[in-house]
Predict the 3D structure of the following.
Amino acid sequence: MMSLTLQITWLFLLAIPIACIAWTVTHEEVFKEPREFCEKCSKEGKSIFKRKFFYLFTCEYCFSHYVTIAMLIFSGYKLLLADWRGYVIAGFSLVWIANIYMSIFARIRMEIKKEKIEIAVKEEQLNK
């Protein structure tokens, strides 16, 4: 079992690729077409199972749970306890930290976009 300091370090570092993957799949242009297909299926699916299944690929919070499960399998990371309960604690902790990272990233992107719009408006006013 890792020391608590090392476990916490792993928690904050392992959440970075989880957030990156979840954000990329659910927001970025590279996955736009598959995401639009999933959005359509999540709204127009005939069964509740189909609608909920496809929704998972459009919501960064939901999708981060599945990315976290894959990361736990890949890394074998456990938090606080050495048995299966350590995986459960690690899983929910990683999802929480990854979603904090994604919220911070979304806020930064929004601020950058706002600044670009303000600059464009000011440039347009100067050119008149």
User: Anything to note?
Assistant: The mean pLDDT is 94. The helical segments are 4-27, 32-44, 48-55, 60-75, 84-127. The chain is about 80% helix and 0% strand.
